[in-house]
From TrEMBL:
Compartments, as annotated in UniProt: Cell outer membrane
Domain of life: Bacteria
Gene Ontology cellular-component annotations: cell outer membrane
Sequence ranges assigned to domain Outer membrane protein beta-barrel in this UniProt record: 382-792
Protein name from the UniProt record: Outer membrane beta-barrel protein
Pfam family, one: CarboxypepD_reg
Matches recorded under InterPro entries: Beta-barrel_TonB_sf, CarboxyPept-like_regulatory, OMP_b-brl_3, Plug_dom_sf
Record's keyword terms, sorted: Cell outer membrane, Membrane, Signal
Residues spanning the signal sequence: 1-21
Amino acid sequence: MKNIYLLIVFIAVLAVNKAVGQSVPTGARISGKLVDANTGEVIDFATVALYKVGNDNMFKGTSSNDGGVFNLFSVPFGQYSLRISFVGYEKQSIDRIELDATHMVFNVGTVKLKPSGNALSEVVISDKKPQVEYGADQITYNVSESLQAEGAVATDILKNVPMVNVDINGNATIAGKRNTRIFIDGKPSDYMTANITDLLNVLPSDAIDKIEVMTNPPVKYSADGEGIINIVLKKGFKVGLNGTFAITGGSLGNYNINSYASYRTKTLSINSSYAFGESQNIGNSYSLRKNFFPDTLFYRNNYSGRDGNNFGHNFRTGANWDIDSTQNIRISTNLNFNRAGNLSYTDYHYLDNLAVESNLNKQNNSNHSNSFNYVMNADYTWKMSKSGEQLEASAMYSANSSGNNRFLARDYLDGNGLPISSKSPLEQTYDIDGANHGFEFKLDYDKPLKKPKNSISLGMDANLRTNDNDQEVNNYNFITKQYLTNTGLTNRFVFNSNIYSAYASLNLHTTNNWSFRIGGRGELTDMGFTLSSLAQKFNIKPYVNLFPNLSASRMFKEKYTVGLSYSERIARPREFALNPQIETQDSTNISFGNPNLHPSHTQQLDLSFGMFQKMWSIYPRLGYSSTSSIIERLTTVSPTGVSQSTYDNLASSQYYTVNVYGNYRPTKKITLNGGGTVGKVVYETTSVNAVSRNGYSINGRVGMTMDLPQRLAFEGNMSYYSNSSAQGRNAGSVSTSFGMRKVFMKNKLKLRMMAVNPFSNSNSITYTDGINFTRESFNSTRTRNFSMTISYNFTKVGRNTLEKNRKKDEPVPNIQP
């Protein structure tokens, strides 16, 4: 803790020093003027973005002032390209901008922009942003470039992102990674909500800019998890009033309403989104378990069906204020409400060694749940010098409450289907109430070094959260005609977690196109929990971990890249894995947590390649990871046939992966993308309750987009996924989706038709092997859906929209038309 406080003092002193004496602007300058190609009128407030050659992240940005003039000051020497965009005009780029000591000023002259739909010969016209962009440690999925994203929600989009798997319950993971974190705008969201899938199921796609899949996250991010899926939301950068409204209806009875709007002046932007969705959850499942002991053999087979629906609302609003040319404040808040209802049944068949039924339990369940989530973010950015030095502080507060109420009625029957007179039926209420809250504070400092492109980054953060889980179970007494508390299942679990972190990273670039990143992160973990049924408090001894993060890459001839990265990660036990409360869904299966769990540690090494030409690109990658004390679910069976599932630090493993992803554009109107991941895992364990085994995981995806005549567009995707675990494997599943879109009214009105899994529903089969049992589990969910979306985009931009008479922040060069 003392070191963390010293870091705060150091950064504060540095900030004060910068405030007292700002450095003199250095570097080169790029300037120009924008006019309408048809009328010659100047174009104000157009976006001008500067990119380094070979890097898809914007390096600097500005907008044209009154008179259509733009300036970019203090640009380090190097090679760049400009990308110019404005509502109603073609996006354009100017390449081959080279700055050095002999070329300190680069004037692009007058750039003539033509309205959308017309060609332009004066400059190089940039193609639309690719749907998928690949990097050494990251894949970026640009949501706006996918027609299947229109009118959809985050869960739908994630299903089409390369290297991402979305299971039947809506949980998203990175292929080849055992533990995946979900971030929103660079901040953890999976720990700050009762159920992250509830949020993703109603987060509208129109509010999402892009999705980043980080296989080796930089040290500024938490070291928890082997990879991060970061959902980046729109910030409302377009000038004026812009928005989208969409409504979707499907054959499954699902529908959703999405809306997004943003308004921007010179210094202030406000954006807001609202979504409402309803979806159905209809399916069936079975579990066939064979139990074998030294002196006996018997079977336990379950067959289930369910029919439910889910409702959700999500409201998000944010403001972005440029105090001046060096300071910015961003504030956002998100409200999420979900409600679900479900009716289900399960038949439990007890079979002897000859597979003859001896008993039958019939159970009916009625489930109702609700949740409310609230998150507020505040960010402050100070550009301390024009060379790129900046300080950013951010704070996030989150709170959520949830309730899960279940009523079950169980009848005990003999092998002939008649009631067992010696055993009374069971009626039980199961109520779980959760109340969680968390707070996170971050401080990030970035400073360019003397040589161009070199920089150092420092930062720290504190993540504090509390999870309160109150479980009450009551059984109906048929004699007294009243409900009595089941003390064996009733408990209150309160979990506290405080994580303090600090990091440092050095980024170096050489003149022969080598890039190096040397970083390290330290984290102090302090957690504990209380259980109402036990007098003692479980205090987990605080521990400190250091996580190195190293990478090196080089570009050859601006066509080939090679990179090598190494990092260490941690997987801390989550509260549900630690909670020893017993949860029982039926008479033959119970589950509970393990308070004796300790963290799992992973070392991962990746070798990446990149080859790209004008019409195609391909990115192979080889990966190796070594994990100790893996936290996985372990199932054992007692001699009475009851299945007990808990968590344990089961084993160590070696994981080998091969990834190949790429794009191909045979024509300007057709784009093909896809690839796959094949991984082999080798488990090693000394546990007497698990078996050492090897297994394979396979993930593959292919997609195609096509622009057709008459303003039509087509997109299709197909994916395959299979996985293995310490006790079993998944047989694999295939999902498909196809979409067709037609645009009207100068791109304002769009009609989209979608088909999701038109050939079959989502089915999965899992095989589990224990020391005294084997089990085959099947789950089928009705996902075959045909839907239609109507969306309308509105834009209002003009001189009356913005404040025209304002003081210029930068000098305007004298540029002649």
